[in-house]
Write a structure and sequence with these properties.
The structure is a single chain. This protein is an alpha+beta fold. The chain has two domains: about 1-180, Deoxyribonuclease I, Chain A (4-Layer Sandwich), CATH 3.60.10; about 190-253, no CATH class. Helix content is about 20%, strand content about 30%. It has helices spanning about 80-85, 110-125, 200-210, 220-240, and strands at about 1-5, 15-25, 25-35, 40-45, 50-60, 60-70, 90-95, 125-130, 135, 140-145, 145-150, 160-165, 175-180. A hairpin with a 2-residue loop joins strand 2 (about 15-25) and strand 3 (about 25-35).
């Protein structure tokens, strides 16, 4: 365990965003993002029990970068990862040591963190950008893939990632990424609903029919999610959706 740094971390020509994880008087890891000073970035406040630090970077469109460290000794929960992903504004990238083993990204086995991370990736339709082995275990002389770069779906195929050949004295291989193909998110027209014409009697009847026998064996979070989704879907089926008109700006030359 490393002692708590007495001086702030600095790197010439870079702005440092870091979040040490403290336990009593000792530091249990550290997450850090170093952003070149020529780029504009602002730190985001992430309310999470996980070791994370995140910034909103403008290159030139906004993209969220998040650094994460999941200690091997701590088992993450689906709620912790879901809360983190939900708090990051897309498009986003999450990179770091997940200590998560799973054949889905090149592992030879699967552990608890790997299973939870896979479920989160499937649920939120996330993208894994690397499968090369990144960690060398000097005791067993084996390689594993626990350092990952994950992004929101819109950034699929937007970057090239490859491991650096020099370990630089670490047992983790640095991962390099080429961000030249960052994709700007395409603006989407949000549907507008005419709630003045909602058939509220049908809404009430349909919702009561669909929720007569709820699955009470599920967790409270799952029950709330199912009920909320049912309300939204029922409201959609009982509410007319007006046609949307796109207005094109007239150019004057």
């Amino acid at each position: 365990m490393n002692p708590i740094p007495r001086k702030p971390i600095s790197l010439r020509n870079y702005t440092i965003f870091n979040q040490p994880h403290l336990s009593d008087t000792k530091a249990k890891g550290n997450v850090l993002l170093a952003i070149e000073k020529s780029l504009f970035a602002e730190e985001l406040i992430i309310l999470s029990s996980l070791q994370v630090v995140a910034v909103r970077l403008f290159v030139p469109f906004p993209v969220t970068l998040c650094s994460i460290y999941l200690p091997l000794s701590e088992k993450i929960s689906k709620e912790q990862l879901s809360d983190l992903v939900s708090s990051l504004e897309p498009p986003f990238f999450i990179a770091g040591d997940f200590n998560a083993h799973n054949p889905l990204w090149g592992g030879s086995s699967i552990n608890h963190n790997g299973k939870i991370l896979e479920e989160c990736i499937d649920y939120y339709n996330l993208v894994i950008h690397n499968t090369a082995r990144t960690h060398f275990n000097s005791t067993y002389h084996t390689w594993s893939t626990i350092d990952l770069i994950i992004s929101s779906a819109s950034q699929a195929g937007s970057i090239l990632t490859y491991p650096h050949k020099d370990l630089a004295g670490s047992d983790h291989t640095p991962l390099l990424m080429n961000p030249s193909a960052f994709r700007s998110p395409q603006p989407q027209i949000q549907p507008r609903w005419n709630y003045r014409k909602t058939d509220w009697l049908q809404f009430k009847s349909s919702l009561e029919d669909s929720w007569k026998n709820p699955d009470l064996s599920a967790s409270s979070d799952d029950i709330i999610h199912q009920f909320t989704s049912q309300i939204i879907e029922t409201a959609k089926s009982c509410t007319p959706k007006p046609k949307t008109t796109q207005f094109h700006k007239k150019l004057v030359w």
